[in-house]
Amino acid sequence: MRTPLTGPEIQRLIDLLAKLPGLGPRSARRAVLHLVKKKESLLQPLSEAMVDAAEKAVICTTCGNVDTRDPCTICVDTRRNAASLCVVEDVGDLWALERAGAHKGRYHVLGGTLSALDGIGPEDLHMGRLIERVAAGEITEVILAMNATVDGQTTAHYITDKLAGTDITISRLAHGVPVGGELDYLDDGTLSAAMKSRRPV
Amino acid sequence: MEWRDEGVVLSVKLHGENAVIVDMLTAQHGRHSGLVRGGRSRRLRPVLQPGNSLMLHWRARLEDHLGSYSVELMTARAGILIDDGFALAGLTAASSVATALPEREAHSALFSAYEVLMDNLEDPDIWPMLYVRWELGLLQELGFGLDLATCAVTGVKEGLAYVSPRSGRAVCVEGAGQYKAQLLALPGFLTGPTGADTTERDVLDGLALTGYFLEKQLFGPLLGHLPEPRTRLVDIVHKRLTPKAEI
Lengths: 201, 247
Fold this sequence. Notes:
The complex is a heterodimer. By secondary structure, chain A is an alpha/beta fold. Chain A has helices at about 10-15, 25-35, 40-55, 75, 90-100, 125-135, 150-160, 190-195, and strands at about 60, 65, 80-90, 105-110, 140-145, 170. In chain A, about 45% of the residues lie in helices and about 15% in strands. Chain A has a four-stranded parallel β-sheet with strand order 4-3-5-6. In chain A, strands 1-2 form a two-stranded antiparallel ribbon. The mean pLDDT of chain A is about 90. Helices cover about 35% and strands about 20% of the residues of chain B. The termini of chain B are far apart. The mean pLDDT of chain B is about 90.
């Protein structure tokens, strides 16, 4: 058995950090070494921030976003357009759209996509809450911002069917050539989707 | 161990942070899974979508190992189909029903039929009939084929309109007699040529027929019910059949 390099406290920190996405044991060791070297300026504020976040982080019961208040900051922001609702798969997608400043309305996080393989059906996603929000009457437009994958679009079509009886406008994100994309380097599927979604200029 | 073959993606499951386990229906090696390293990458994510045809190079140290795939895109279908809810319903239903196939058992004829189905998913007038025929073929390949050649009661080859849920044999109108209500409807496109006069009611009858035997013989013992995408497909065809005012 290999002799441990450090005491159990630091080893525990390395083991926990190694479980984070994008980090392995080697990069976790580097991160911990950096933290220990900058104990006052980084390690202690980080540990306090983590304790604080662990105590206060909650899932918004209205939209499914992660925040430290419920309803979340986006749901209570009166400057946002309450009539426009953007449906996303995951909190990461919501944050990506917010980062881009692409949507000025509110959101609804489904928590995944329909997937027969993983046994995820409509009842496992926050579909019921979405239908309730739409039925409340304030929303006039639903934007389906699902990933351009078979599972993502199957979920989008499922939601479209569920909302078919209402008089709200339903739209989805465009599929096609990304900004800065060169046709020669695009995959066949994206090119086909872009050609199919072409529009007059 | 290694081989090269072509196949259609059935499903993709995450494995760790960057790899995926992809389930393929291949031409010579049947339903076969394998690990794709970097399958979550920006380059491979659009390639590893259900319905796409790939050229595969499988390698493993031993034959019964999971092994890893190197993949190359041959036909990209997912990008075209994701806008079409009806086609997607067919694609996901077919992918989920194909999981009834045992792994690593070659079914070349079924693979060819699957490719034909995938190639026609853009045409809503054709693919539902091809889909029902493919499910019939799957039942046949797995030893639960229906006998639709002659009437089980009278022996005639014409006017076949029903199938016995017990024996899986066709029955003509005269032969059905008073038992009509207990028999499954047999749509004309399953006994004759696929005609332009085939309606969505015929497709629904076909889906009910194959669905009954798929559930009884394959999915019932495994899951207790048909896969959800298959049930959703029937709902969608039913909605297309029902006038909007009735929904």
